[in-house]
Amino acid sequence: MDQVQKVKGKVFRDLHSVAGIFVMPNAWNVGSACMLEEAGFPAVGTTSAGIAFCMGLPDYEGVLTREAALDEARRIAGAVRLPVSVDAENGYGHSPEEVAETIRLVAETGAVGASIEDFAAAYGTGELYDRLLAVERIEAAAAMAASLPFPFTLTARAESYIVGHPNPFAESVARATSYREAGADCLYVPGISDAVTIGRLVKEVNAPVNVVMGLTGNSMSVRQLEDLGVKRVSIGGSLARATFGLIRQASAEIRDHGTFGYAEAQVPDSELCEFFAGRQN
Q: The pTM is what?
């Protein structure tokens, strides 16, 4: 790997260890990643949902292929100077060996991190992986990450809230703690949104925690999350969905009213051309 990836890997790893919180918004193509970089964020993640939607696919595991997801990740990582972390879904396979191979392939894209889920809806169960297997999957991912010639930050996701586990907090803590012990660098429990639960989780797992924002009905600020001890904030596919929301709204306006008010919010063509031309240097 070249020196650039080593530098990006160290920068991303250090973001998880220095004091304070940071925001890692999620991009779905090169254009969105470039604009997020220009806004001054220190890192970007990919969003499998956003990539799928832009390909005309639903956000179901097993529909967006590993090849397609990593091709987009490669384009994004090659276009920005920021560290990139890849939404690797469930690792695109059940076995620890398949997950480890996905980490290796993620590294080849130029990215310096990835997240792995412990749930695979597309494969017929609609349930969490057995906890022992889930831990073995993270161990395999962590071992592959440790073998790379640059720092690679592994995020382990505990999906207990997503699947409707009867005791989601206790199960999330147990799984997240096991994943930390298995070598995960950052822990992520999607589905929690209230301050009390987030604060309890951060204290229980004793490791960097990612919280996703941008979901409807959740208005917590970065400052509030920092006060709770959260280390990293992502936005998942929410920005991509908001973009599709604009398309839907504009389409309805044109169809129903024959007007084009949506255009008032557009970025001028000359400004976009200047922006993207400047990035070619």
A: 0.95
3-state per-residue secondary structure call for 128-147: ECCHHHHHHHHHHHHHHHHH
| Angstrom distance (rounded) from CA 91 to CA 85 | 14
Give the CA radius of gyration of the chain: 19
Tokens of 214: 């941008």
Gap between the Cα atoms of 157 and 168, Å rounded: 13
End-to-end CA distance of the chain: 23
> What span, in angstroms and rounded, lies between the C-alpha atoms of 5 and 210?
22
- Residue 148 phi/psi, 5-degree rounding, is -75, 155
pLDDT at 269: 97
Could you tell me which residues come within 8 angstroms of residue 106 by beta carbon, excluding any fewer than 6 positions away? Answer: 70, 73, 86, 88, 114
Strands (E), the chain: 22-24, 26-27, 44-46, 84-87, 113-116, 153-157, 186-188, 209-212, 232-234
Asked whether the beta carbons of 211 and 233 are under 8 A apart, the reply is yes
Query: Between 269-278 and 30-38, two packed helices, what is the crossing angle to 10 degrees?
Result: 80
Two tokens, residue 152: 């690679």
Q: Which of the four pLDDT bands, split at 50, 70 and 90, describes residue 97?
A: very high
Ramachandran angles phi, psi of 27, nearest 5°: -105, 160
The pLDDT of 233-262, averaged and rounded, is 97
